[in-house]
Design a protein that fits this description.
By secondary structure, the chain is α/β, with parallel strands linked by helices. Helix content is 60%, strand content 12%. The protein has two domains: 17-363, ABC transporter type 1, transmembrane domain (ABC transporter transmembrane region fold); 370-575, P-loop containing nucleotide triphosphate hydrolases (Rossmann fold). The longest helix is centred in the middle third of the chain and has 53 residues, at 254-306.
Amino acid sequence: MSTSAETRDEPVARVGVFRQVGELVGALRVSPVGKKLAALIAAIVVVVALTAYGQIELNSWNKPFYDAISRRDFKEFMVQVGVFAMIAGALLVLNVAQRWLSETLQMRLREAVVSDLVGLWLQPRRAFWLQASGPMGAHPDQRMHEDTLKLCDLSVNLGVGLLQATMLFGSFASVLWVLSKDFTIFFNGEDHVLPGFMLWAAIAYAVAGSLLAYWVGNGLISRNAERYAREGELRFSLTRINEHLDGISLAGGEADEKRRVAAHFADVLQATSRVVLGLTNLTWATAGFGWITVIAPTLVAAPLYFSGKVSFGGLMMAAAAFTQAQSSLRWFVDNFSIIADWRATLLRVTDLRRKLASDLEAQSGGSRIAYEESDDGTLALEEIEVRSWSGHDRLDVPALVVQPGQCVLILGTPGTEKTLLFRALAGLWPWGSGTLRRPAGETIHFMPRGTPYIPRGTLAEVLSYAMEPTTYPREAMVAALESVGLQRLESLLDRTARWESELSMDEQLRLGFARVVLQAPPWLVMDEAFGAFDDDTLELVIGALGKLAHTGIIHIGSAGGAHDRLFTQVVHLVKAPHDLPEEPRP
């Protein structure tokens, strides 16, 4: 069950792009902002259509403007300058409106995608299962933050660009057809009619460029996906160092961590160099066509001018129309590197969403512990066996029934996996056999080995986690802190800080018990929770827990200490007599 960021990401290409887009669109349709997205998209379509109409009018303006120049007609020249000002002013307003709509669409689209992913990720136990499911769970934070940001930005930019290109081509295709509908080419002693010559030339020119760009740059999709995966590993490594600075500094491990970071950075550079090489090769195609485009429209329209079928103004209008049409058709060529980048981020985001939407627990084989609800208000472990890498562990009693307010100590014999039993009780490790009956509708508070989770926020929010701070009166919070010897923190209840950095490990552990005292859950399950306390602190904690008369407590750990008097029953976790343990597969 590796969660290391050093593991390689899973294969990139598994399903088609249309299916991936369809899955994402399906999620966006049911999003709370789905109607806003639809309204923004409709508004963009209207603005782009009006812009295309304005550009057609601007293209038609070329003929009278350049004809006035060729005739040296100053009065008509000034009239056309005024016409240009009106057309350009309208287009400017449309450009500004389109920019605002596009930026707003990007923001709302990201809101919908991130909310969908976070909602799936933070379903009960789903994040834990993702972490245990393989390389996909190594750094989902990057996929939900950076990849969704890039995906939404690129999707809107590419989508609006494709819409503009489609509308412009549809508009200017008719212009090119009309201009060259009577075009003839002299061959073999006679004229041959080639209707729509300029339109077919624009299409052929753009198709050739698109095919060449696809052939040269197709590998950029997988190269970009690999680069993002390696960037995620580097980010994970740097974040991990920042979170464990004390341990690294005390162990003198800076040189070793530097070596690890250097290895990850080398992977990033290697992946980036492959992207650079792909972009360089693609530039030969895109830039080459770009330079040819400087003169191509005039060369294609020149036969109409030299044959006397159009005036100089008509030549300029035809060249401009050809430029607009072929630039629309060349959208794929001009944006291929961006499309490859978009495709890579789409793969990463939709792969994560598909993984989160799947039954992560069912993906691993083997027998399962049955989880049921009890109607008698008890917590019962019936024939429970926990499967681990070292074999099967079970209790030395066939059934353990814990009554409300009862305190039970489960002692683990050497070689048993006490933490896996703790996770099994929480439903995070279902591999094994037997039945666990939990009280219906009652909260079970789980306290893991080591320091408890401390969210970022006020100290009041830390104490009331995962409830609202307003659930508990301030007097109750003060009393909870005093019960475990944390009186000095009473004045800091409304302060926001990174408490895991400001509090000692002992204080963090006591804060976890203060949370239990405040919330007084019906049930408390602990995994080796007392080992880090000195005798005086342990007396405080045991005294605080002893006052929770209605809380049923199960502690999985060791005996020998002041906490023994808290428990009224002791059972043992022992090795089950299985010859060939079945390997768990989370």
